[in-house]
Amino acid sequence: MSQSSAPSSRLLDSPLLLQSSELLCSLGGAQPERVRHPDSLTPSPKSLPPSPIPQTSVPMSVGDWESREELRQRELEEARARAAQMEKTMRWWSDCTANWREKWSKVRAERNKAREEGVQLRNRLEVLSKELSALKRERQESCTEMEQLRREVERLHGKEQATPEPEEPVRDVDTEKPLKIKEMDVDNLRPEGCEQHNGDSSRSPRPRHWEDRDPTEEEASRINALKLRMDESQKLLLKEREDKMILSKNIEKMEAEISQWKMKCEELSKSRQEAVTQVTLLRERHQDELGRISEDLQDELGVRSSMDKKLAELRAEMEGLQAENAEEWGRRERLETDKLNLERENKKLRLQIQDLEEILTRKRRQTVSALDTDLKSIQAELYEKNKARIT
Fold this sequence. Notes:
Blueprint: H1 2-12, H2 15-34, H3 58-156, H4 170-175, H5 191-198, H6 209-212, H7 217-390
């Protein structure tokens, strides 16, 4: 035990151990200077040259980024709210325009319907006027035919007819003088009746032998045929008169309806003017609203462009920070590799020191054993010399 403790104390005092300890201390002192903490991103001023990028604190940039992100989110929410409001206003305006279009289409349909009915009434009036003129012509023809029949009757009875008076137009016959055919007895048709219808100018003394003479069968048949024709013409005239009354009533009704439709058309034109004024007012309001919306959109576009610029700046700054971070990570990896290399070298040196210590201990043991043998031999020699001197 004393021998093992003695070599250990001598080994601590040996110069080789002191040199190795100084080497380890120098290595240990250099290690903190070269190897930094892995959490620190700034490089060591002794190990690496200073970076040209300005040193910015990462927590502060992260805080600025968060605040800018919140501001951007708020601006986006405001823009979305404005867009939703604009969409609501546009929908409201579209609904208003649709309602006005529907009302205007109804008014237009009523106006077109009134126009069509007016056109139909005009066409009907034209048709009725044509029918009336045709009936007037037929009545005039029937009047002329009756005159011819009267003349033929007078000729058959052998009367000398005077020149007839000029006939009046059909409208004068209807309006001023009523027809005398109703008053005339067709069964007792005689020359005197014809003279009364034609006027007092034909009242001249007639010979009496014509009245006493009996008509022949041929003349009687002709007279009967003429009577039948006169009856038919009288019936026809009565029917035409009734038709004329009906047509006049229809014309009055149609004129009343036309006046009503004119009043309706005037009301529709007034309502149309009111609708046009309201539509113009709504268009002006719509144009003003569109102008305001366009201004808001331009403002939002400007805000978005400024936001895009800010985002571009933030992206550039973020890219710079990412590049700096990547550079710092590269430095950190290099430092870690240097640290690992130094640890390996330290391990090698420790192993070498252990080997040297073992070699020293062996050599010490060898030297101690050699010294012991030398001492023993010297002591034996001295003992023998002393013994030889004593003897």
